Amino acid sequence: MSDSDEARRRRRPRVRVAATAAALALVAPMAACAGGADSGTPTINLYYPPEQNLQQVVDECNTQADGRYRIVYRVLPREADEQRVQMVRRLAAEDTGMDVLGLDVTWTQEFASANWILEWTGRDRAEVEDGTLDGPLETARYQNKLYGAPKNTNVQLLWYRKDLVPEPPTSWDEMISMAQRLKEQGQPYQVLTMGAQYEGLVVLYNTLAASAGGNILNTDGTEAVMDDGTVRALEVLRNFATSGVTSPSFSNATEDPVRLDFQAGNGAFQVNWPFVYPAMQEANPELAEQVGWARVPGVDAGTPGRVTIGGVNLAVSAHSEHPQESFEAARCLRSAEHQKFSAINDGVPPTIERVYDDPEMDEAYPMKETILEQLRDPAVRPLTPAYQSISTVTSALLSPPSAIDPQATADELRKAIADALESKGVLP
Predict the structure, then answer these.
(1) Would strands 190-192 and 267-272 be described as parallel, antiparallel, or unpaired?
(2) Longest distance between any two alpha carbons in the chain, whole Å
(3) What is the separation, in whole angstroms, between the first and last Cα of the chain?
(4) CA 25 to the chain's CA centroid
(5) Beta bridge partners of 160
(6) Percent of the chain with pLDDT over 90
(7) What pLDDT does 39 receive?
(8) Is residue 427 scored above 90 in pLDDT?
C-alpha cells in the first residue's frame, strides 16, 4: 500500500506520478482483448490489482514462455475489499477460470485455510525463498507451509521538515514534544497520520504494539493475547491523540488526505507510505526540498520502531486447470528483473533484497536504505485466517483513539479478537 496498504488498498508509491485514471482505464480493455489464446496454448488468467505497467511484465513473461502458455491480465477493482469479494465468491464456487491471484498480504492464511490456493513446493518454493526478505515471506506462510510468492512489499516512513527540526525524533514521546514546542513557536507543528476507523488505524496500532514488544495473538495465531506491550501501545496511541499535535481531522484521516495536508505545509511530521515522496516533488517541489525521511519512531527511546508491512503475494488457485504453468508464470512475474521494473515504473517496493543494490534503484528510491532497515525487522499483522474479522473489530474498538482507556480497551480487544478467531466463515 497494500495495501496496503492499502481505504483498505493503500495507494502505492508512484515514481511516475502522472498515472491518470485514463491510463489505468486502458489496462482493462487490453487484458480483455488478450483473452483469446491460440488453440492448444493454455491461458493463465492473472487476477491482480490495477498496476499501470504490469502489462509490460506480462508481455515479457509471455515471450519467455515461448508458446507453452499465455498469461492474461484480468484487472481487479481498485478497492481491496472489492478485490477480495470477487475472488472469494469465485473460488468458493470452484471457478476454474482463475489461475494466478494477487492477494493482499493479510489474505494468504484465509485463502490457504479454505483450500482455495495451492502450496508452493520443491523448486518453485526454493526459487521464491532465495533472497526474499523474511518479513514478506512470513506473510506468505500458513502452518509452516508456503502458499504465496511475495511480489512486492511496502512500509511506512517518518517524513519530517528539516527546516523545522534538526534531527528526526526516535520515539513517539520525543516527536510529540518536538511538535508541541513548534506549536508554541507558532510554526507548522502537526503530526499527520491515519486515524480513521479502517485498516490504516489497525496498521498504526500494530506498529506501536510491535514496537513495544507486544503480541496481539500467540505464536501460532490461535489465541488472543493482548499482553503488556499491547497495553503500552494503547497508551501511546491515546496520548498521541490527546496531545494537541494531531490534525483536527485525525479520527477521520486516511492516506491521501494526510498526504495532501502535509503537502500543503500544515504539518511538521507525517507517518505515511513512500508514495508521498514523488507526489510532493510534483505538487510542491519547494517544500519537497525541505523534507527528510527516517524510520518511524519507536515506543521507547533508543529502541527502533518496528513498522507494519504491506504488499501483494502471488498465489495459485486450487481450481486452476494449469497449476504447473501457473506456478511458472508467477515465478516470472515476481522475478528480480521484473520486481526492479515494477519498483521503478510503478513504485512498488521489491521483496527480493538484492534488487535494492541495483544502481537504477538509487534515483527512484533515494530512501531505499531506510526502507530496507525497516523491512529487515518489520511488524507483520496477525497471521490468521480470521484477520479480516480481527481487523474490523480492532478498528471499531480503537476509534476514536482519543477515547481509548488502555487496560479496559485491551480487555475488550482480547474478548472481541477471541470471538473473531472462532468465526469459521470466510465468505463476505
Answers:
(1) parallel
(2) 72
(3) 22
(4) 23
(5) 269, 292
(6) 87
(7) 60
(8) no
What is the spatial distance between Cα 15 and Cα 391, in angstroms, rounded to a whole number? 30
Give me 312's grid cell.
Answer: 501483494
Return all residues near 157 (Cβ < 8 A) that are at least 6 apart: 271, 272, 273, 274, 293, 294, 295, 296, 367, 370, 371, 374
Contacts of 144 (CB under 8 A, 6+ apart): none
What phi and psi values does residue 152 have, to the nearest 5 degrees? -150, 160
How far apart are alpha carbons 45 and 72 in whole angstroms?
A: 5
Distance CA 379, CA 298 (A): 12
Q: How far apart are CA 335 and CA 356, in angstroms?
A: 13
CB 198 within 8 A of CB 254: yes
Q: What does the block give as the cell for 98?
A: 482463475
| 128-155: average pLDDT | 97
| Separation of alpha carbons 116 and 180, rounded Å | 51
Residues found in the chain:
428
| pLDDT band, residue 280 (cuts 50/70/90) | very high
- Which set of grid coordinates corresponds to residue 218? 500467540
**Range 208-229 burial, b when 16+ CB lie within 10 A, else e:** bbbbbbbbbbeeebeebbbbeb
Provide the grid cell at 205: 496500532
Q: Which residues contact residue 336 at a Cβ distance below 8 angstroms, ignoring those fewer than 6 apart?
A: 131, 350, 352, 354, 355
- Residue that is written with C-alpha cell 506498529 in the block: 207
Cell of 90: 469465485
pLDDT digits (tens, 9 = 90+) for 347-385: 899 999 999 999 999 998 999 999 999 999 999 999 999
Residue 12, pLDDT score? 37
Instruction: Give me the amino acid identity at 394.
Output: T
